Structures are given as C-alpha cells and as structure tokens.
Amino acid sequence: MAEPNHDLKFDVFYRPVGGKMMESMIKRTYMRITSLNNEAVLIEDIIINRGNSCAIAKKIGDNFKDKFKKQPLFNYRLKYSQESAYELKCAPSQLLEIKIVTDKGDFERKVQ
C-alpha cells in the first residue's frame, strides 16, 4: 500500500447521471478526474468510499463512439490537464471520499 503523496493534485468533479431529475430514479453518478500534475502519472486504481460502496460501473469515453466501447478502467497515463470520466453505481450524495492510486503515490480527498 503506497503512502499518500501530498504533492499529487487532481480536480474531482461529479454530478448525477441524467441530471437532478433522474438522480433518485437511477442512482448513478458521473465522475471526472483531471490531472493538475506537472509530470504524467499512471492511474493504477480508483477507490471510492474505501471500497465499501459506490463501485465504478464503467469508464466513459471522450466521444460518442467511445461511450459504448468497453475500456479498461485503469493503467493509463494522465498528463497535466488531461482527464478521465467514470460512471459510478451510486447517487452523488453517497460519494464521500476518493483515493486515486498512482505510480507516484496515492491522492486522497474527502468530497462531502
């Protein structure tokens, strides 16, 4: 288990899938992480709520065609300003904390 690296920086954005009206019906969350790191980092894993809830359903592609393509969840590099998006199996109100495991250490953040 890697130590937290307080120099790692990511922006974490999340919202209900389908907007506020759909939130209570489908209980899914769109989450986007953006690298704010000067050096490229290898994303090895993303752990939501210590692995107890809010599992990642799928990685979401950048364009319409990619939205339906099955993609590996992890083991990709993000350079400064590059982002990756996911669909989570929970409502946004259930998202409490996130841990991004990288080759340079772990980034941890409470989101609520």
Descriptive keywords:
112 residues; mainly beta; globular
What do the pLDDT scores average to?
85
Query: How many strand segments?
Result: 8
Contiguous low-pLDDT stretches (5 residues minimum) are none
Largest sheet: 4 strands, antiparallel
- In terms of structural class, how would the helical and strand content be classed? mainly beta
Strand order of the largest sheet: 1-2-6-4
Which of globular, elongated, flat, extended, rod-shaped describes the shape? globular
Q: Over all CA atoms, what is the radius of gyration?
A: 14 Å
Order of helices and strands: EHEEEEEEE
Helix content: under 10%
The span between the termini is 24 Å
Helix count, DSSP H or I runs of 4 or more residues: 1
β-sheet strand percentage:
35-45%
Describe this structure in words.
By secondary structure, the protein is mainly β. It contains one helix and eight strands. The chain has one helix at residues 20-26, and strands at residues 10-16, 29-35, 41-48, 56-60, 76-78, 83-88, 97-102, 105-110. Strands 1-2-6-4 form a four-stranded antiparallel sheet. Strands 5-3-7-8 form a four-stranded antiparallel sheet, with no helix packed on it.
In short:
The protein has 1 helix and 8 strands, in the order E-H-E-E-E-E-E-E-E. With 112 residues, it is mainly β.
